[in-house]
Amino acid sequence: MLAPMRLLPACLWLTASLAALTAQTPLAELVRRSAPFDLDGDGRAELRRLEWLAERGAANQPLVVLLVELRLWQAAPQSTAPEQPAAELRQRLHTLADDIAAEGHRVLLLGAEVHSGPPHQDGRTVLAMRRLFQRLHAAAPMAAAVLVGHFPDALLVRTCNWRRNEALQLPGRDGVPVPIGPETTNLRAVPEIVAHRCDLVLADLDGAWEACYVPGPATLRSAWAVFGPTVPEAGGVCTALQLGELAVTDVFHVRDGAAIADPAGFALHLDAKDRDHECSTADRALGNPLARPEIAVSRLDARGVAVTIDAGALAADASGKLVPAACADLPWSTSLAAEVALLNRYLARNHAFRTKAWSADQRRPAAIAHGLGGGMAVLREADPAWAAFAEAGYDVTAGDLAALAQWLQRPAMLRTLRAHSDAHGAAFGASDPAALANAAGPAWVWHREGERFVPSWAGHRRGHADLGFYLSLSANQALAATPFVLLHTGCEALSPPGSVEHAYDAPEYGRYGHAEAILFHTPCVAMLGRAKVFYDEPREFAAVLAAGGSVGAAWRRYFEVEAQAADWAQVGDDIGRKRAYFWSVVGDATLRLSRAAGAGELR
């Protein structure tokens, strides 16, 4: 009898033994031919390497691709058993593939290494990854792709001929500011970053995104003009005109309407029909032309929130439990070992969310809001059993961080968080450190006091729910154990910090990000959120979940609903009609609301 391979579970041993057979399939050959791949022929491959790791499910089922960063697949963190964490990660990824296949999908588990280092070309690498998905989709229709690890994002800029009424001043022909009243319509054609993360670029497989890519460094021109009481359709000579430009590097530019300046003639010429260049022919024919995704895309990237606490900043309390303590240096650092550990924890609760029969006390909706309207009415639509749900503590419409902590301690499987946000956290009410310690436990964040760093909630007095807040809740085990799907309507909640200034592989990119702090330091399993300052939310999100659809299907449905508009006024007018572009998913887009105990499988 053969001795078992050390640390390798049976499923991994079987996968390795079948690799030679799998590698003979047409789909495996397609993957083999897809890397290395150099999109622009500059001698630097964007897709450096692809490895076929496993295949699950029937060949006639919709395809889901799990694209795993090879850095993680091959990881060997320093420990007493260096290979063990990576082996656990591989095992859990195989389990994820099995779970998705059991729900009626064909699953490919692929390892990938993509471009890193100079030049800054994240968007071009995204396009190369998109080429892979296009080839796979043509061979075996895809439903979704889940990116596991740290991959580049698409940064989206939009210029729109936006007609506005407001009081302002713009330079006249002589350069002297001209006061403009709100009764006068002005035309604003100014390039603006509208999504720091736009996974539509990866998911829209028939659009013209390659033509929209601007590697840069480049400048995009802007214009702000007044022609008279109204804006002529074709523009013309201006009474006030301000010209400018935006310096960009590595962006996708969506341009809706031409605005060509004639400085000598103090004129701006307009063409409203010069738009929708990113759209396929079919998408341009829609009532509201916009690019629509053919597949769902989501990301599992723990790199920026994989915090390790130095041992010197910990001490044992009376019960022997380790708690934060004063120390000489700031004790936070990030590490590969912590990143792998966070992914392992996430994949464990993903499996539980899918396979466990949850009790009615756990399968509940929960809504919290601060400074914005509440969202419980939206969540109730996701399950007929929730139509009259109104238990105390589950619909919180104002509060501080202590209230947020208490809300997260109540079991729920579908949540919505509505608060003014940014790339690092959400804004709640002013928070008393003592009350916060009582609700959440000790702070696992340190602040300088004289020559020492002291653990304290003092830095959270203003009520900012950030990585330090969620990490502390996790370290203190002050969270309900029930995994949940989250609809986050705060602005820029999915924006990776540093995405404008840095390439994706810079240490500053994504560091201490808002979305990932929630995804990896709470029981969250999927989060739908926005990467821009705006006011919308995905329509019919709950209806899709109620019908048994996935989080990714709910994201895709928003594009379909927006596309059906008979008039742009229904979708935010010219500036808002492509607002679906601002939304993406982190976590696992293939997840559906888990079944309740005693209930049958979801449709």
Radius of gyration: 25 Å
Architecture of the largest domain, according to CATH?
A: 3-Layer(aba) Sandwich
Secondary structure: helix percent: 25-40%
Q: What's the CATH C level of the largest domain? A: Alpha Beta
Percent of residues in beta strands: 25-35%
What name is given to the CATH topology of the largest domain? Rossmann fold
Shape: globular
| The number of domains | 3
- Give the structural class: alpha/beta
Count the helices. How many? 17
How far is the first residue's CA from the last residue's CA?
45 Å
Biggest sheet features: 11 strands, mixed
Tell me what the structure shows.
It is a single chain. By secondary structure, the chain is α/β, with parallel strands linked by helices. It folds into three domains: 10-148; 156-284, no CATH class; 301-587, 3-Layer(aba) Sandwich (Rossmann fold), CATH 3.40.50. 26% of the residues lie in helices and 26% in strands. The chain contains 17 helices and 32 strands. An eleven-stranded mixed beta sheet has the order 1-3-2-4-18-32-31-30-25-23-24, with helices on both faces. Helix 14 links the parallel strand 30 (484-488) and strand 31 (524-530). The longest helix is centred in the middle third of the chain and has 20 residues, at 336-355. The chain is globular. 48% of the residues are buried. Residues 1-22 and 597-603 have low confidence and may be disordered.
Considering the chains and any ligands shown, give keywords for the structure.
alpha/beta; 603 residues; disordered N terminus; 17 helices; 3 domains; Rossmann fold; globular; 4-stranded mixed sheet; single chain; 11-stranded mixed sheet; disordered C terminus
